[in-house]
Amino acid sequence: MNEHFKRILVPVDGSTGAGRAAAYAAELAEAFHCPITLLYVYHPDPNRVMGMVGLSRERIDEISKGAGSKAFASARESMGSSPMEIEEKVIWGEPREEILALADQIEAMIVMGRRGLGQMKELMVGSVSAGVVHASKRPVTIVN
Questions:
Q1: According to the 3-state scheme, what is the secondary structure of 14-56?
Q2: In sequence order, which residues have a C-beta less than 8 Å from that of residue 25 and are 6 or more positions away?
């Protein structure tokens, strides 16, 4: 293991960019003999939140876990079969903040795609990957 990180954190959203990042992270994990954490940050837009009014907490958890499961399946497909340890984590929140917080908590290197599914939103408010690069205290690799 190296002295700079203990895990590799890969934020995923089901996009092509996240798939490429997951594949690259798998190669790094094998080279450095370290585990991977796949992270899906559930960040519903205001319309979705309004649509969840009246739903039970259990149903809301099912919705977020279902969305995460799709993103994890896509990432794992991109990674191929590899013997490394892979953990999957679904968190609610603002993606940039949650990625940074988890990376610090688990002492991880962050490997993420340059563009995710929210491309139009990224044009208006700035991309998650750019925000992570600028604010991270941990090593970050952006995969094109």
A1: CCHHHHHHHHHHHHHHHHHCCCEEEEEEECCCHHHHHHCCCCC
A2: 8, 10, 36, 79, 111
- Closest by CA to 103, choosing from 135, 71, 130, is 135
AA identity, residue 51: G
Contact of 107 with 4, CB cutoff 8 Å:
no
Rg (CA), the chain: 15
Predicted confidence (pLDDT) per residue in 47-96, tens digit: 666 667 778 878 878 888 898 999 999 999 999 987 789 999 999 999 99
Instruction: Supply the mean pLDDT for the chain.
Output: 87
**Which structural domains are found in the chain, ordered by start?**
7-143 (3.40.50.620)
Among residues 142, 10, 23, the alpha carbon closest in space to that of 89 is found at: 10
